[in-house]
Amino acid sequence: xxxxxxxxxxxxxxxxxxxxxxxxxxxxxxxxxxxxxxxxxxxxxxxxxxxxxxxxxxxxxxxxxxxxxxxxxxxxxxxxxxxxxxxxxxxxxxxxxxxxxxxxxxxxxxxxxxxxxxxxxxxxxxxxxxxxxxxxxxxxxxxxxxxxxxxxxxxxxxxxxxxxxxxxxxxxxxxxxxxxxxxxxxxxxxxxxxxxxxxxxxxxxxxxxxxxxxxxxxxxxxxxxxxxxxxxxxxxxxxxxxxxxxxxxxxxxxxxxxxxxxxxxxxxxxxxxxxxxxxxxxxxxxxxxxxxxxxxxxxxxxxxxxxxxxxxxx
Length: 314
Description:
single chain; alpha/beta; eight-stranded mixed sheet; three-stranded antiparallel sheet; 8 helices; 11 strands; 19% strand; disordered N terminus; disordered C terminus
């Protein structure tokens, strides 16, 4: 069984010959980004430890997988001076609540957002304890993956049961929203323009926040190859939903999410690509899902959450 099947990440492991990154994260764009502080979500000792040290694996394709997270943080990425537009986005990587695909669905996305004038934070949320062996998969996640694969084939259950690590991750998401709102003026952020974008498991977290308590609800949300979470209130924030029809884990969830948002009377936009699998990110594959980030930015521009590009001089 492949790593992609065992670790339900924000990535489906791709060919090492894949092109480096999209134009949003080229070297010129990187110069417009300032990597800032790493902010603990809680005072040390305020949350229970898993009892093992945090582990990081660097995969051959350049991804960094983080396991056994007991001390959640926010990592700040700021636009260059004079370029910030007042919008902020918390980026929640995927990983099945067992690991975090921290580079492809985290820091690279944060850098791309910051290059567009958006203050970004990568959320390193708590995971469950990893298992033994090279794949690090605990028994509970193996059982969860069995449900995921059965549901992809049969459509049942309509909504995936909560994952073992989901409650703590959602607590961390709530705490992250609170910190960013409380410190918005410090970072030049409008406290009413703070969103969250999640990938895979991170999109479950983002959906949980979007339909949760109003006090910690984001102002907008991006659900990228995520899963259905209900009930969606009428006051749910606007949602940008993206997924691929050939996603082997969640082929139906983008449509289910869109329908749930629209049934509630909440605003939503859906992009369902023919191909992309479970894990398209900023790396070009020569398919239409390569354009999800530009379409996200266009959606944000239409809602005045991102700056429109300057017209070209004639």
